[in-house]
Each structure stands twice: as C-alpha cells, then as structure tokens.
From TrEMBL:
Keywords: Membrane, Transmembrane, Transmembrane helix
Transmembrane parts of this sequence: 59-83, 95-118, 162-180
Protein's organism: Catenuloplanes niger
Record flagged with keyword Transmembrane helix: yes
Protein name: DUF624 domain-containing protein
Length: 185
C-alpha cells in the first residue's frame, strides 16, 4: 500500500474515531456508534463514500434492529462489572478471583461487541443476530479475539498516557475490528 493510501486510511480512522467518540457520549449509544464507525472504516476499504455526511446516516441506521436497547444493556452490564471491581477494591474476601473473573468478563463482552460492530452494515442483520454470531466467532477464533484484547489494551494505555490520543486510538481499534473479521473471509 503506497504511503498516500496509508495516510488516507489513517485519516479515515481518525475521523471514524472522532465521530464514534462523539456519538458514544450518551453511553447508551455506544453499540450503534461502534457499528457506524466500523462501517465507515469498511466503506473506505471498499472504495465507497466516506464523506463526513455519511457517518450520521450510518449511525441512524445502526439504531434500527435493537441497537439502542442493546446499547443500554451493554452499559448496564459494564456498570455492574465496574461496581463489582469497586467492591473488590474495598477488601472483600476472595477479592483476587472475583477481580480476575470481572476483568475477563469485561474483556469478553467488549470483544464480542467489537466483533459484532465490525460486521454490522446498513440494511444487514439485526443486532441480536450479530452479537450471537460474534460470540461464536470470539470462541472459535481465539487469535482474532486476542488481537482485539490487545487493541483494547492499546486504547486503554494510550488514553491513560495522553487523553487526546483516544480519538486516533479508537479509530485504530475500529480498523482492527474490521481487519480481524475480514481475515476470516
């Protein structure tokens, strides 16, 4: 891939990361925002339009098929896991095993969500079917799941070091999700 194409891909990842971050601010819109962001990166890779005006259309379409309701359930599940981790830090008996289970459950949930978002396309299958299929692929394609865990770790460390880097790091995570899913086909 020539340098100009690599720069264009990175620019689209930054744009997708920014749009996804803004769209996910209400939290319950996290799942549809991830789907729209991955679709935006995939559109660039497929040579389709990635004009800024296409992201809001993709986002609105991603609300269909249970995107908003499942996004709310996702936030609720992550909140419960976070509360469990807070309780563990308070010194409850058996804190280490509970912390390990909570961390593993959080990573597994995020990997499944990223895999589902990476294959979402406007007019495609609804979110429950995508999540169900993504859970199966997460189990059967462990190398791909570990790549996404590494991407999540990169996002966390990069953001921890310098908060404004969350935008390009999120875009790169979206691209990573699309790449992990495309390597299977």
């Amino acid at each position: 891939m020539p340098g100009g194409e690599r720069l264009a891909l990175f620019a689209e990842c930054v744009l997708a990361g920014l749009c996804t971050l803004v769209a996910a601010v209400p939290l319950v819109t996290l799942l549809p925002a991830l789907g729209a962001g991955c679709a935006h990166v995939a559109a660039h890779l497929d040579g389709r339009s990635t004009a800024l005006s296409t992201y809001p259309r993709r986002l609105l379409m991603s609300f269909r098929g249970g995107g908003l309701a499942l996004g709310a359930l996702l936030v609720l599940a992550l909140a419960v896991l976070a509360l469990d981790l807070v309780a563990v830090r308070r010194g409850l008996p058996g804190a280490v095993p509970v912390a390990v289970v909570c961390a593993a459950a959080t990573l597994a949930l995020l990997v499944v969500v990223l895999r589902a978002a990476a294959v979402w396309r406007p007019g495609g299958p609804c979110w429950p079917a995508l999540l169900r299929d993504a859970a199966g692929r997460a189990r059967t394609d462990l190398p791909g799941s570990l790549l996404l865990v590494g991407g999540l770790g990169m996002l966390a460390v990069t953001t921890w070091q310098l908060a404004p880097l969350v935008i390009p790091a999120l875009g790169c995570l979206l691209m990573g999700g699309v790449a992990v899913e495309r390597r299977l086909s």
